[in-house]
Specification:
This protein is α/β, with parallel strands linked by helices and 271 residues long. The chain has helices spanning 27-36, 57-66, 99-111, 162-174, 195-203, 213-223, 249-270; strands at 50-54, 82-83, 91-94, 116-125, 135-144, 179-187, 206-210, 226-236, 243-244. A 5-stranded mixed β-barrel has the order 4-7-6-5-8, surrounded by 4 helices. Helix 1 crosses helix 3 (99-111), helix 3 runs parallel beside helix 6 (213-223) and helix 4 packs across helix 7.
Length: 271
């Protein structure tokens, strides 16, 4: 506990935001420092304007197979291999799981010149309208992680890029894949998704839960970029007991649909 005669440091999310526009460590400066150790600079990395990212290894493996196994670029980004698939309009790489490190990667990609980011990942369902293997497009995100509060005021509910979400919906219908849209709850603590919280969020019209999107959408709003996501329902959290679907046939189908749809939309965004 802080001593009563000392100045209290920010301890709650609504106190995290700083009005100072510059940070002591800027993403571009950090990138330049790291890359210089390998004899290259940010200008040597040909990151495309559109980037397709995956949170889950199974999605990354499926995506690379879908893209005919492109060769990785010579220089990694945040120790992640990345790819510029031949004949495609986007770059692709895996994103770390969890808001803080996912945001670090996004910040570096923005510093490298990328501007539109489409994420493929998993989510838990809070609403019985979503079942294992369904595809979900977050429209807004409820912030129950810490990172987003360094980018937007506490009262702001970050939203996905509307044009990207619409394109996902329209291209999905063209492919015969129906993706539901709605509000998402982002949490830092998946093992504290209690029955009471799930019921409260569901009553408020929140349909799914993840660990990153509120923070990523907040960074997009702050940096003037576009972010959207296509998430596969991996587990159902609205039953009296948890019902996971990892490895289920419906889940495998949903992953394949997400990869095909995500790649097609990333191409459209970059064309």
């Amino acid at each position: 506990m802080l001593a009563s005669n000392r100045k209290a440091f920010p301890l709650t999310p609504d106190q995290f935001l700083s009005v100072e526009p510059a940070s002591r460590i800027e993403p571009a400066d950090f990138l330049a420092h790291v890359l210089a150790q390998y004899g290259v600079g940010p200008a040597d990395l040909d990151v495309r304007q559109v980037v397709l990212l995956t949170f889950i290894p199974v999605l990354q493996h499926r995506l690379l197979r879908h893209l005919d196994m492109p060769a990785p670029q010579s220089q990694s980004i945040m120790r992640q291999a990345w790819y510029n698939p031949e004949g495609r309009a986007f770059s692709t790489l895996a994103s770390p799981v969890g808001a803080p490190v996912a945001v670090m990667l996004l910040e570096q990609l923005i510093a490298l010149g990328a501007r539109r980011f489409l994420y493929l990942g998993f989510c838990g369902a809070l609403d019985p309208a979503l079942t294992i293997g369904d595809l979900f497009i977050p429209q807004q995100a409820i912030r129950e992680e810490g990172t987003s509060y360094h980018y937007l005021p506490a009262g702001v509910e970050p939203t996905a890029a509307a044009a990207m979400a619409t394109l996902l919906q329209e291209e999905g219908e063209r492919q015969g894949v129906h993706a539901k849209q709605g509000r998402l709850w982002t949490t830092d603590a998946p093992y504290r998704e209690t029955a009471g919280k799930i019921a409260a969020f569901r009553a408020a019209g929140v349909q799914a839960v993840d660990m990153e999107m509120a923070a990523l959408l907040s960074v997009a709003a702050y940096r003037g970029c576009e972010v959207a996501a296509l998430l596969v329902v991996s587990d159902e959290c609205y039953h009296p007991t948890w019902r996971p679907g990892f490895g289920a046939p419906e889940m495998r189908r949903g992953c394949q649909e997400a990869v095909a749809l995500g790649a097609a939309v990333a191409d459209l965004l970059g064309s």
